[in-house]
């Protein structure tokens, strides 16, 4: 799943994002935090609940309700059945909901909360200290998951969101899935989405779309078939 967790270090405190869900990763994460010798001011959770039961939690607008709903709840129930005791206990404290269009300061660092892709609501785009742009999915170079791009309409939504990421002027780009990339990767993702849009308009079925996408990106990792099926369902 390429899940990623982050620590933002301020002068006198820390902000964590997307605390790990599995015990082994959460323990490693906690040890690293301890070694930094600074208190954790808050945990920002955008889609990925983890082992942060003792921390104050903030979530982007709409996320607390979504997490309590049947889609997310069903996913977490499935994880619990599949992974059992390897998962941490999920947090039970009430989260503070942050409105889109607002800037919050945690540990002396500004966090600007804006809407992410319309197809990924309530996922957000968070600009951290004017240098790092966080979204649910980092624009790393592989074929997009149907979990992110689940319909023809989602192409335009993701294209608009990726252009908005680039327009922030951030130096680095990160995500709840995927690691750190820089501006060229975002520009490449925009070109990729524009290619998807063109091929989806030209090709009549998933098979011909997949063949054309493979020809356009012969060396790109990832599975084309599920993406093609999602775009033609």
Please give a structural write-up.
With 233 residues, the chain is of the alpha/beta class. The protein folds into 2 domains: 1-100, Metallo-beta-lactamase, Chain A (4-Layer Sandwich), CATH 3.60.15; 116-123 and 140-168 and 181-233, no CATH class. Helices cover 38% and strands 22% of the residues. The protein has 7 helices and 11 strands. The protein has helices spanning 23-36, 63-68, 70-83, 152-167, 183-202, 206-216, 224-231, and strands at 6-9, 14-17, 40-44, 57-60, 96-98, 102-106, 109-115, 124-128, 132-137, 172-177, 181-182. The protein has a 6-stranded mixed beta sheet. The chain has a 5-stranded mixed beta sheet with strand order 1-2-3-4-5, with no helix packed on it. A hairpin with a 2-residue loop joins strand 6 and strand 7. Helix 4 runs antiparallel to helix 5 (183-202), helix 5 (183-202) packs antiparallel against helix 6 and helix 6 packs across helix 7 (224-231). The longest helix has 20 residues, at 183-202. The radius of gyration is 18 Å and the shape is globular. 34% of the residues are buried. The mean pLDDT is 95.
Descriptors for this entry?
single chain, 233 residues, alpha/beta, Metallo-beta-lactamase, Chain A, six-stranded mixed beta sheet, five-stranded mixed beta sheet, globular
Task: Spell out the blueprint of helices and strands.
Elements: E1 6-9, E2 14-17, H1 23-36, E3 40-44, E4 57-60, H2 63-68, H3 70-83, E5 96-98, E6 102-106, E7 109-115, E8 124-128, E9 132-137, H4 152-167, E10 172-177, E11 181-182, H5 183-202, H6 206-216, H7 224-231
Helix pairs in contact: 4-5, 5-6, 6-7
């Amino acid at each position: 799943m390429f899940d990623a967790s982050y620590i933002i270090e301020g002068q006198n405190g820390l902000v964590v994002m997307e605390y790990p869900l599995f015990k082994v990763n959460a323990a490693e994460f906690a040890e690293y935090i301890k070694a930094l010798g600074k208190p954790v001011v808050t945990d920002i959770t955008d889609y990925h609940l983890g082992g942060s039961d003792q921390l104050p939690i903030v979530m982007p607008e709409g996320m607390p309700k979504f997490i309590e709903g049947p889609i997310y709840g069903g996913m977490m129930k499935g994880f619990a059945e599949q992974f059992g005791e390897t998962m941490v206990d999920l947090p039970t404290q009430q989260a503070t909901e942050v409105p889109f269009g607002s800037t919050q300061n945690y540990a002396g660092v500004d966090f600007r909360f804006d809407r992410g892709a319309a197809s990924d609501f309530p996922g957000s785009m968070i600009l951290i200290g004017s240098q790092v742009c966080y979204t649910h999915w980092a624009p790393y170079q592989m074929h997009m998951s149907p979990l992110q791009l689940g319909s023809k309409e989602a192409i335009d939504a993701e294209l608009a969101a990726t252009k908005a990421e680039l327009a922030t002027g951030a130096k680095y780009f990160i995500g709840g899935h995927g690691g750190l990339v820089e501006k060229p990767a975002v520009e490449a993702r925009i070109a990729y989405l524009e290619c998807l849009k063109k091929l989806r308009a030209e090709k009549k079925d998933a098979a011909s779309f997949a063949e054309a996408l493979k020809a356009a990106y012969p060396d790109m990792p990832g599975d084309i078939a599920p993406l093609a099926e999602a775009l033609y369902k």
